[in-house]
Amino acid sequence: MRVFITGATGLIGSAVVAELIDNGHRVLALTRSDASAQAAEAAGAEPLRGSLTDLDVIRAGAAQADGAIHLAFGNDFSSPEALATCIAEENAALTAIGEALVGSGKPFVTCSGTPYAPGRASTEEDPVPTDGPVGGRGRSVAAVLELASSGVRSSAVRLPRTVHNEGKGGFAGLLTTIARQTGVSGYPGDGTQRWPAVHALDAAVLFRLALEGAEAGTAWHAVADEGDQVRDIAAVIGRRLGLPVESVPAEGFGALGPIFAADQPSSSARTRQALGWEPKHPSLLEDLENIRA
């Protein structure tokens, strides 16, 4: 299968590209710079120059492929306005891919975050939020899943708060960056809130499984660790960086403060049973031991 991918050279995307190529697929990768084009080629993919705002390029890439995987996101969390811009750009790109695939029966796998379920771990049956700071992403994913009624085998892989590899990535990676900047490995509140996690190499397998066989309109959870307490995550970061570990007001985490402070464990029981997905790589707390001061 020839697969069009956005975000192909990021932490998750590079793992997905390798997983696809290792399993006999070909990859057409959207690349926004010479450096990312070279990285895509080195990984065995064919680069297609363009960014998430180049909608004609995105339509063309999706149209000439046998399926598509969307992974790109602006990741600008500096302010609510910057985050809203990233969400709007992603929504336009998803719409463009969908337009190119309508009526084709081809697979289209997008990504989102795992949802919040009060008092319990969320499951694949729970809806993603469509309001709040990242509600726009939830609405975009819902629109992709609705393409199932328009002849697209659309599905969504829901990613946990941290997708990690070699101690980098996700919300835990943001905590590490903030700790380096402030000199404190901080966590909001009492730190008992739980964040789910998955290794990027395990997540990549799930994206391939969804591409190859997920039914139209379905959502799946790439969750290996159901929920580590944030203070435990901060403790490893602090120890590895030689920094004090302390509670920090949620406002100190900027636009992501309310999200960082929320308890959001998640389950992948249905995904494992239905798709035969089984995580095999190190847990988040194990992987954070790769952080270097």
Structure description:
With 293 residues, the protein is α/β, with parallel strands linked by helices. Helices cover 40% and strands 20% of the residues. The protein has a seven-stranded parallel sheet with strand order 3-2-1-4-5-6-10, with helices on both faces. Strands 7-9-11 form a three-stranded mixed sheet. Strands 8-12 form a two-stranded parallel ribbon. α1 (11-22) links the parallel β1 (2-6) and β2. α1 packs across α7 and α3 packs parallel to α4. The N and C termini lie far apart (42 Å). The mean pLDDT is 95. This is Nucleoside-diphosphate-sugar epimerase. InterPro entries: Epimerase_deHydtase (IPR001509), NAD(P)-bd_dom_sf (IPR036291), NAD(P)-dependent_oxidoreduct (IPR051783). Residues 3-217 form the NAD-dependent epimerase/dehydratase domain.
Annotate the secondary structure layout.
Elements: E1 2-6, H1 11-22, E2 26-31, H2 34-42, E3 46-49, H3 55-63, E4 67-70, H4 80-101, E5 107-113, H5 135-146, E6 153-159, E7 162-164, H6 170-182, E8 185-188, E9 194-199, H7 200-213, E10 218-221, E11 225-229, H8 230-241, E12 245-248, H9 257-260, H10 269-275, H11 284-287
Parallel strand pairs: 1-2, 1-4, 2-3, 4-5, 5-6, 6-10, 7-9, 8-12
Antiparallel strand pairs: 9-11
Helix pairs in contact: 1-7, 3-4, 4-5, 6-8
